[in-house]
Structures are given as C-alpha cells and as structure tokens.
TrEMBL record:
PANTHER family in UniProt: SSRA-BINDING PROTEIN (PTHR30308:SF2), TMRNA-BINDING COMPONENT OF TRANS-TRANSLATION TAGGING COMPLEX (PTHR30308)
Keyword RNA-binding on entry: yes
Underlying gene: smpB
Name of the featured protein: SsrA-binding protein
Region Disordered: start-end pairs: 136-158
Gene Ontology BP annotations: trans-translation; trans-translation-dependent protein tagging
C-alpha cells in the first residue's frame, strides 16, 4: 500500500505548514524578494526553511526574518554566505499600509506561508492572521482525524 501525498505544484519551493496550524489566516498577499545570486541557486535546488520565518514591518517597508536558505556546497568562495539573514519584501505602498494597519490596530500577525516561482522570480505568499488558541488547535486536529477516518471508512466500504 502506498501513501499518497497531496500534490504540490511544480513551481512551489517550500510550504510552511506550521503557519496554518498556529494562525487563523484571513488574507494572503504575494510579495517579491530581494535575493543574492547564491540564494537563487540554492532555492532552485529546493533548499529553504520557512518554519521559523516571520514578517516584520518597520520604516514603511516589510522584511522577512528567520527564513533559512542554506548555501550550496559548491557556492562561490569569495562570497560570505549568511543563511539566515533579513530579506526585504517587495510590496506596493497600499499593501504595506494595509499590513501595517492590521498589525497595529487589530493585533494580527504576518507570516510567510509558501515560497514559489512565478515567471522565473521567487515570490513569497504571506498570510495575515491571528494566533490560534490551544482549543482551536485541538478542534482542527479533531477535524483532521475525522476526515482521515471518513476516508478510511469509505475506502473499505467501496
């Protein structure tokens, strides 16, 4: 019996599953990234960790913190690779203002959900949401278990 994993599009580099578990995501935005050459090469080989990443807004700009892009072993020797560095996100002014308003007034958090390729450029899908309480997480876990059990029952009855 082979386990089937959910299909992930070819252009997706990495998905932050933990973010959807920890936060109730209400809205999403797509942002570009300012990257160095070795980072792009590393992303092309699929090396990325978004689990500890978060978005910080300061000075009218958005930055991605904590996302790790480990360098390739064959990286250039004259470049000092820094895997976990602050990366600037490219957003329109209205989008930054909307994010800033949600974070300051409403107490929302901004987290990276996934990174993907779009027309040869790396893009980050960021989500705006509130942190879930412990009972919300338990309820989600119950729903997942019930869905899994329903699928098993339907599979065996067919």
């Amino acid at each position: 019996m082979s386990k089937k994993k959910p299909k992930i599009a070819d252009n997706v580099i990495a998905v932050n599953k933990k973010a959807r578990f920890e936060y109730a995501i209400e809205d999403t935005l797509e942002a570009g990234l300012v990257l160095e050459g070795w980072e792009v090469k590393s992303l092309r080989s699929g090396r990325l960790n978004l689990q500890e990443g978060y978005v910080l807004l300061k000075g009218g700009e958005a930055y991605l913190f904590g996302a790790g892009i480990p360098p390739l072993p064959s990286a250039s020797t004259h470049v000092q690779a820094e895997p976990i560095r602050t990366r600037k996100l490219l957003l329109h002014g209205k989008e930054i203002a909307r994010l800033l308003g949600a974070v300051q007034r409403d107490g929302y958090s901004v987290v990276p959900l996934q990174m993907h390729w779009k027309r040869g450029r790396a893009k980050v899908l960021i989500g705006i949401g509130k942190g879930k309480k412990k009972f919300d997480k338990r309820e989600d876990k119950k729903q997942q278990d019930w869905q899994r059990q329903k699928e098993r029952l339907l599979k065996h009855n067919v």
